[in-house]
Structure formats: C-alpha cells, structure tokens
Amino acid sequence: MRTLEENYYAQTLAEFIRCCDQEIVMLNWIRTRLPIYLQGLHWKRDRTPLRIIGVGSGNGIMDTEIAKIMLPYQRDIDCTAIEPDIEELDRFKRRVNADKMLLGQVSFDWNHCCSEEFEGTLEGNKRDDLKFGTHLVHMLQMLYHVRDLESSLMTYFGQLDASGLMLITLASKQGNEMQAAFQDYERKLQLDKYPTQRNQKRYSDDIIEILKRKGIPYYKENVVYRVDVSECFKERSKAGAKLLDFICLTNATRVYQTLAGTNRKALLESMSEFCSKDIEGRVTLKLSFDAILVYKTPRVNGLKV
Ligand SMILES: C[S@@+](CC[C@H](N)C(=O)[O-])C[C@H]1O[C@@H](n2cnc3c(N)ncnc32)[C@H](O)[C@@H]1O
C-alpha cells in the first residue's frame, strides 16, 4: 500500500468521472426532482434576493444548475460558494463567466476555504452578507470531508431561513454493489476481524442517524448510478489501475490505497461476483447515493413527491 499524492489522486478522480454516470444522473435529479421540493416555499412574494450557500462546490457544475432552477422565482439570486481547492474554484469561475443564462440575475461570492473555516465566520452573526437567513443550502457529495459531521450539519441548518431547504447527497449503502464487493473481499481475507482498522467512511445513514436523534423530519430519495470497471480487469491497463485506486480510496468500507498482488486479485474476484456484464462485454457495478432534503419549517400537510 502507498499513499496517493495529490496530482495522482486528481488523475484517479478524473478516471472515475470518465467511467461513471454519476454526474449526469445527479444533474438529471436536480433538473427533475429538486423543483418538486421547492414547490410551495412561497419564495415569489418577496423582492429581496434568494440566498444560496453551496458547500464543497468543486467546479460548480451542480451549483450553477441549482441556481438556474431558481431563476423562475424572478428574484435576484446570491450564491455563496465554499471550496478549498483553488483549481476547482477557478473552473467554477470560468463556468459562470461562460454562462449567459446566469448573467445579470445571479451573483457569486466565492470563498476559497474549507467548510470549517467558513462555519467559524458564521458564529455570532458576524457576516453582514449572511445575517438574513439562507433559502437553500446544498452539500453535495462533500460531507465525507468535514471534521465534525454533526456540527457542520447543524450549523448550516441553523443558517436556514424559516422558508429554507437543505439538500444533502452522500453515498448510500442501499443497493451498493461496490460496498458488497468490499465486504466480500474483507470476509475472504478475514480483515473484518480487526475492527480497529475499520474505515470511517461516511454514508447517508450517518446523516439520517443525526436527523432522527434531533427529531428533524427529512425526505430521502435513493438515486442509482453505474461505474464501468472493465479496465480494472485488464492486467496492464494504467487507466484501470487508476480507477481501482480511486475506488479503493473512496468506496471501500475502510480506507485502502493502492492494492497490489494477491490483494488486488482477491478484490477483483469479489468485484466480479457482484458486477453485471453487457452484450458488448462492459463490466459495470451499481452504486447509489441518497438525496436527503430537510425543510427548516416541516411541511404540515406533507409533500407529494
Ligand atoms: C466529490 S467533490 C463534490 C463537488 C460538488 N459538490 C459536486 O457535487 O460536483 C467534493 C468537494 O468537496 C471539497 N472539500 C473537501 N474537503 C472539504 C471541506 N472540509 N470543506 C468544504 N469542501 C471540502 C473538495 O475540494 C471537492 O471539491
């Protein structure tokens, strides 16, 4: 095992994005499902801007899509984006500058920092720009990274306006063939006998546990996507090695880094037990994330979703 250095990690991530349809599936979810949850929030009545906070925005592909979903409310939109990776933030800025739909109506305040640092600036209402409540907070595929999950979750929940909504997405264990493959691998190598080595990877269940404990109602949707792992089975494929490294680092039930030799072989055997093969010979595994939605003021009459 070895540590993935930053540049190599970025390459493995790029390989994962190339091989899976998560991005398109999530964009589709935002376009088709999010508007349903926004219905009935009565945001049209006011002339002040709609305020959005995006935490861990990455290159802004989802943030800009969400801003567009809000355009029909015919109010100005102020987006606060938080992202610690400067290169991702630059991509986000370029994306906004190139998008004519956003011009004029949507403004962006980019914060080059991690969530914890930003949360510190919220304490005691120190920020004039955020002293009014936020209409939408979204945290997409990023809560794996915060130091204290409950603290971050509750800080942003506290930031919501009474008519506000919080959207979280995080990997789900439901129907997750990759997770099943890792569990199988661990059983075979008897790694599950060493609980101290257990990975702290977070799943949507960790969010649900906090919300339930706090008595905060939520809606949850399970969203399935697929990753094509065919290259991983090709012995000399560099692309396959990168993809497998990324999968080990982010999708396992504990943190693995580069697997070699018999461990790699054993993992591939486990993966092949759970994957599907299509007529063109493509080998894919099913993964899923949960979209969790929390209203600051619970819906009295429920919501038809
Ligand atoms: C998997 S990406 C998701 C990006 C984006 N939300 C999306 O769905 O396309 C996770 C992002 O979280 C950022 N990140 C990592 N640690 C963070 C932290 N402590 N606070 C805020 N963002 C963080 C990473 O730089 C990365 O851009």
CA radius of gyration: 20 Å
CATH architecture of the largest domain: 3-Layer(aba) Sandwich
Could you tell me the CATH topology label of the largest domain.
Answer: Rossmann fold
Overall CATH class of the largest domain: Alpha Beta
Number of domains: 2
- What is the H/E string? HHHEHEHEHEHEHHEHHEE
Distance between the termini: 45 Å
Q: What fraction of the residues are assigned to beta strands by DSSP?
A: 15-25%
* Helical residue percent band: 40-55%
Q: What small molecules does this complex bind?
A: S-adenosylmethionine
Poorly predicted regions are none
Mean pLDDT: 88
Q: What is the total tally of β strands?
A: 8
Q: What's the shape? A: globular
Determine the CATH superfamily of the largest domain: Vaccinia Virus protein VP39
Q: Helix tally?
A: 11
State the secondary-structure class. Answer: alpha/beta
Largest sheet: 8 strands, mixed
